UniProtKB/TrEMBL annotation:
Alphabetical keyword list: Hydrolase, Signal
Protein name: Alpha/beta hydrolase
Keyword Hydrolase (UniProt): yes
Pfam families: BD-FAE
Amino acid sequence: MTNRRQFFGYGLAALAAASSSRSAWADDVEKKVFLDYTQKQLNEAYTQTVWAPNAKQVIDGYAKTSEEVRRKLPPVTYAYGDKPSERLDVFAPAGARGLPVMVFIHGGAWQQLSKEDSAGPAPVFVAAGAVYIAINFDNMPDNTLPGMVDQCRRALVWVGANATRFGGDPERIYVSGHSSGGHLTAVMLSTDWRACAAPAQLLKGGVVMSGMCDLAPVVLSVRGTYLKLSPEQVTEYSPIRHLNRFNCPVLVAWGTLESPEFKRQNRQLADALAGRARLAGVLRIKGANHFEVVNELNRADASLTRATLALMGLTD
């Protein structure tokens, strides 16, 4: 008998555009969708390289672009913790004072990349009159998901407490992230900051790009082999389970060439946030695969960039 993976999902609009290779049917009352995959189909739905033949080229481009930006616009690096990895790069305009701050959390399937690959959007934000920060944290297998969440939270608390040191406004801190960084961004946006000894509304807005909001299907896929989460941790680190904690506007963006599960996950988050008046906007990046979405922030004229700057109050 074929091994199958079955679970409930949400986001009916996304399912209409999902892959027809799996079965799905709706419960009209609860607005839930029962999803039925073979293990191979589920693994592929959470393996973006299957859907993006140029993945290596695009990912390699992150580092190349970042290196060029860092050479032309050298950041100031600060420590937010005691470990050598707990560093963040600050890109700020000359004479910055009281500017909004965008903190970026990199992706890489929780296993790859770093702040060194994350400088691409810095020139756009600096030119718009903002401070851009790329944070670093330990990846798996040297870290765990709870460990990553802890590092990202501590980095954001540090930014809030030290914003004036680099010309930022502690009352205007925003967070963004892509892929697994999009998931971590959603976790940050659904964090009770008072429990971290920070202001309840530490964050004034966020941008979730191609992220994941529900880890239940993720841990059933091949990714579960290295995430190694308990049922309690799946609940704790699934932002869709903590919608009451979102207290600021959020943009949700994904590419039209992403896998059906990533489309569904992002639509699910957007629908849920809309229901709580926390959705700032939805952007479907036409013709972009998973890895290409984040590069939109490298262009001042991109719709995602314009929406992000508007979220930060940096419109003309």
